[in-house]
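quick one: adenosine-5'-diphosphate bound model?
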Amino acid sequence: MTSTSTQPSSAARRDARSVPTSQILKSVERVWGYRELRPLQEQAIRAGLEQRDSLLVMPTGGGKSLCYQVPPLIDRRTDVVVSPLISLMKDQVDALKANGYPAAALNSTMSTEERKAVGRSIKRGELRLLFVAPERLMNDGFLKFLQDVGVGGFAIDEAHCISQWGHDFRPEYRRLAELRSKFPEASFHACTATATQRVRADIIEQLRLREPNVLVGNFDRPNLIYRIVPRVDANAQSLEVIRRHQNEAVIIYCISRKDTENLAGYLKAMKIDAAAYHAGMSGDDRRKVQEAFAQDRLQVVVATVAFGMGIDRSNVRCVIHTAMPKSIEHYQQETGRAGRDGLEAECVMFYSLADVMRWERLIAQSAEQAQKPGPVIEAATELLGEIQRFAAGSTCRHRALVEYFGQAYESGDCGACDVCLNELDTLPDATVVAQKIISCVARVGERFGVGHVVDVLLGSKSDLIKRCKHDELSVHGLLKGGDKKQLVSLTHQLIDQGLLSRTTGQRPVVTLSEKSKPVLRGEVPVVLVKPAAKANAAHGGKFDSESWEGVDRDLFEALRQLRAEIAAEREVPAYVIFGDGTLRDLARKRPGSVETMRGVWGVGELKCKDLGPRFVEAIKAHCRANRLDTDAGDTAATGGGAPSSGGGKGLTAGALASFDHFRQGKSIERVMQAMSRARSTVTGYLAQFIEVEEPDSIDAWVQPEVQREIAEAMKRAGADYLRPIFDELQGKYEYDTIKLVRAFAKAKV
Ligand code: ADP
Ligand code: ZN
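yep, here:
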């Protein structure tokens, strides 16, 4: 986290120190129900209060909106938010209004009457935030109006759109440069989720920011689990991933409109309720999909990049890329739509070198159409190279992403990516297979594409092969019986690793590289990922179990239903009612009255009054039916209360099935195999088993000296939360192991 500060020069700027932190917190607590600020939020809010220019770079989900929402509220002034998408504005305004925050948007879809009404409330000084699109804002008459009424600050959302070095250049953003001279008294606050150094500099220059406070948040999203697997069959692979997320929100990104329709059709045929979304659909159709998704009535959307900016659903549990996107910025942005509620989510990319070639063609085409100037093409090619290195590489994904955005990654293993979770299933005889492929490339004279090379190895007798007499080569049929798609993927991997080369252009040809010969001579061992290796069984990672801790899953489902009902009644997205984090906390604490409900994470004053009675009603009904007490345990802390698995209640069928295995003392590995579940899932079951069945010893699963060490650490750090114990042991033992020992300690008392 960095913050470059220089003192503001103008004495006219307010001394924001006069607003105590407690006052900021109080407003945030009252309106939004959050008990603390996230990293950088306080600094950013202070910049707003001080009316000092700022540039806030924070990943999606980091909480940028709060930073421009709070200052005008405390200062009782009107600020303007510039945002590129109308649909995004509407959602934001709805969410704010639901919290009792005076905000409005102005856009072309509104009637003259509605617009006039907004104009009147601005004049009366009732509004704290006004959202507008840049085109509307830069209209001369409107600017004059704003100059007359006075604007405290401008928040420029998605500020990277102003830079051609960004991934989403929008020429209409350039005109925002004129604002500075028109509103010399106002402060400017640029926000973006993705900006490399170059783009940041560009934003500051273009918006003429004055000695801005540059606040760069942590780019890591520890709750996201990244997986990049070789693509063999996007349909089948997507289906497999979706099946891990039943009843959960999933967004699948494809490159083309046609791809989205094909995949959506396939999924429907497989009885998955999915819808396509792309810019070629009518506005009406798109709105329907978007609304159904936002209101929790539709779980799976198969989309092009057109889907997203307007989607604010915070409980997206999985984002799939069926192909590599065209830049790391896009990848970060799109995967960033997963897990915005801070709870675990999975991001899977199916990668193939073919994607790189496809993008190269698309970039070349747009160059030919000559609509875009040279530098934009140059930038596009550079960005493509970066993401190819990322996708084909085998560095920790969290590390690679964070470093790309110019930050240091301090932790070791992230515990939440395919590389660190050790999931990359490697091909046992990779070196031999690589030698065969490379020999074949040499034998066909380095004049053919990947498909042909693979056909020769498979022993195809096609006309082309006969005509070239390639059926007479010694390499012909060398990998007979193999799978064509898998072999193509392996060849692509060799190219990605530089062990083979390829030409670009219309008909790319595979050639040898300087690294090919050493492989043939057996001097360099080769590592290849087994294509189509089943992606890991569950969305494990250390986050999963922590945030579900103590949550009554049945109650959670019931509350979700209620949320969907209310959302449909009010025609707002479900997250406007409550986020998943709040539902989990409700299902953990089971408040039996509106008063105790106020102690739940994410429940502000207004929402508690408004929604409290219905939620409390549902909780009480659930508790009666299941003979549970309301107001479970100690409700003081957020997250990770005591598991409420009393008497087998709240145990899933999976957990119960696992108990038989554990009674027989089977190892975690054997239960993983027997039940085809991921390690984290099985250890979760085991922890429940220990608590519920209270075995005499857990030596079968954790070595006695490890148990002693963890027990010691637990004495020092307390047993309420896993994190302090983990830290106390300086990461020596996995969360899973600690959890088992803790469960045992609890069972013993
Ligand atoms: P961004 O605009 O940076 O993508 P948002 O402003 O939409 O992110 O915030 C993402 C989510 O984080 C929101 O759903 C909001 O509920 C939550 N959030 C923001 N600030 C806080 C906070 N201080 N405490 C808890 N949750 C927060
Ligand atoms: Zn990692």
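The first helix runs from residue 21 to 32.
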